[in-house]
User: Fold this.
Amino acid sequence: MKTAFKLAYRNLVGAGLRTWLNVIVLSFSFVVIIWMKGLLAGWDRQAKIDMIRWEIGSGQIWHQSYDPFDPFSLQDAHGRIPDSLATPVQNKVIVPVLISQGTIYPSGRIQSVMIKGIDAKQNLLALPTEKFDTACGAIPAIIGENMARSTKLKAGDYTTLRWRDANGTFDATEICIAAVFKSNVPSVDVGQVWIPLDTLQRMLGMPGEATLFTVKTPELVVSPGPQWKRMPQKALVADLESMIKTKSASQSIFYIILLLLALLAVFDTQVLSIFRRQKEIGTYVALGYTQSQVVWLFTLEGAMHAVLAAVLATIYGLPFFIWQAQTGFKLPVNGGDYGIAIADTLYPVYSAGLVMSTTLLVLLTTALVSYWPSRKIARLKPTEALRGKLQ
Assistant:
């Protein structure tokens, strides 16, 4: 075994530029695959952290009629805050949110919005609800940057808000934009207007009612009653995980093409090597090597391309990975425009499992590609190979 490794290494080094070209291409595959997978892992982690901070906490409790994908369900998706939740709500470990449809008229234009009422003194979510204390002579409201950009509203602006109360009566009043916040979670930003909970309850004629509750800790044991349903954190991020898995699958096509190009170079090298070294193969057999041992030697020689590529990728890829993890990758587009939770700058996350699985994948596929042409050695006739007769 030791002799085989020595022979394989010497043959590789002896091949000179041909070996190093293959190693450089393979190392490039290493770096690109690990970097892109790390970028997706970073997006996954960052998006979940943002959703927990801005919207879902450790889970939510929904009214049984509430469907976030059906605005028409909001008419019936509200109920009185259960007595079992009154104490947690008072202690700020559960935050009630009341949701209704509405319309605003910025600069004379009409735009449908979701009016969301939340406690001004809550500290569970990252929303700047303390801005509700702003005295402006109208109902103070906060909106996200994407909403501000689409409506051309800014802090200090006034606009008209129209809604329909629990009795089906339309009403309108003036709101002032107390603050514009920046969030990577579109579901708290795009088309949303946040106002104080008690104000919205009074406007809608729904005192003491809510549409959903955000929970601070998953260990909190409360029984909200049959009118409400629990939504664990895992269920609330399921759509995000599904989308990232789809992205990962589509990116795999790119990985496969990149890897195939690198493996094609290794395959060609192996074919050429076996064609040009038939006398050497005959010599090995004459010295007592079995044909399977010669096949193993050539397979090992091809697989060592991946080992050298891993070493080279570590030399120039490691500083690149560290630099990317610190500075991140700035996206050229705003994720909020596409309705997905994605930050302007993504920070890749490289786990040991990611590096090991990628290394193992490249090593195994390189060994397989190296073995494929080496099988021809088993069909060579040693006497003719020694005479230099091409077969």
Notes: The chain has a mean pLDDT of 84.
